[in-house]
Amino acid sequence: MTAMLNVKNLRAFYGQVQALHGLNFSLNEGSLTTLLGANGAGKTTTLRAICNMVRSTGAIEFEGRPLGSRSTENIVRLGIAHVPQGRGTFTGMTVEENLQLGAISRRDRAGIVTDIERMYAHFPVLKQRHAQQAGTLSGGEQQMLAVARALMLRPRLMLLDEPSFGLAPLIVRDLFKILGKINREDKVTILVVEQNAQLALELADQAHVIETGRIVMSGAAKEIANNEDVRKSYLGY
């Protein structure tokens, strides 16, 4: 596989506080990778650093192009979609208006219409709610809308921050099935930060475990899931 994203010696800072301490990892094109760790370990900061939303040093390359000097907007235009924790939908706009806003940088009107229908195929409940204000949706529906809106960019890489946060277990499983389908069928490379370690490891190809801003374990998701330390710390058995 070809490496789509390369992260080398990544250090990130909030003011004088250093949050990441020399991370090194890569994402293969077409892969689905999970980043595991406790609260405050540096998972969210890693996603923000990739999008140049925090001060950082080191090297981040996307398809051979350095990201360090680019604005967040420019990074998005390269084909990297970021779905932050808390969903971030525009609550006063309808479902369909949110989807259209996700494609605001595109000019292919016919393609946008086609992609909206494709999102409705992935998330049928959104089609049922297409004229409803996003703020009136359930938490699970808002998360689905946030993912669908990001996909309207036609991204090559999607960064997901705690997509299961606050959702009922059945909704989480449905959402993760859809993410797997998007990865397989739409060929979107995915990096997901997730506290539901068991579900994330079932979904992912590769996994990295991060503690206090350092990657302490990397490998195939199945191998990580079978690691005794990971089982005790994150899987509860």
CATH topology of the largest domain: Rossmann fold
What is the makeup of the main sheet? 6 strands, mixed
Low-confidence stretches: none
How much β-strand is present in the residues? 25-35%
Please list the strands of the largest sheet in the order they lie side by side. Answer: 6-7-8-3-9-10
Span between termini: 33 Å
Oligomer: single chain
CATH architecture of the largest domain: 3-Layer(aba) Sandwich
The CATH superfamily of the largest domain turns out to be P-loop containing nucleotide triphosphate hydrolases
Count of strand segments: 10
Q: What Rg do the Cα atoms give?
A: 17 Å
**C-alpha geometry:** globular
Helix content: 25-40%
Question: Total domains, how many?
Answer: 2
List the SSEs and their pairings.
Elements lengths: L2 E12 L2 E12 L3 E5 L6 H8 L4 E8 L2 E2 L5 H6 L2 E4 L11 H8 L6 H14 L1 H5 L10 H13 L5 E5 L7 H17 L3 E5 L3 H7 L2 E6 L2 E7 H5 L2 H8 L2
Parallel strand pairs: 3-8, 3-9, 6-7, 7-8
Antiparallel strand pairs: 1-2, 1-4, 4-5, 9-10
Helix pairs in contact: 3-6
What does this 3D model show about the protein?
With 237 residues, the protein is α/β, with parallel strands linked by helices. It has 2 domains: 1-79 and 156-171 and 188-237, Rossmann fold, CATH 3.40.50.300; 89-154, no CATH class. The chain has 10 helices and 10 strands. The strands form 2 sheets. It has a 6-stranded mixed β-sheet, sandwiched between helices. Strands 2-1-4-5 form a 4-stranded antiparallel β-sheet, covered by helices on one side. A hairpin with a 2-residue loop joins strand 9 and strand 10 (214-220). It is globular.
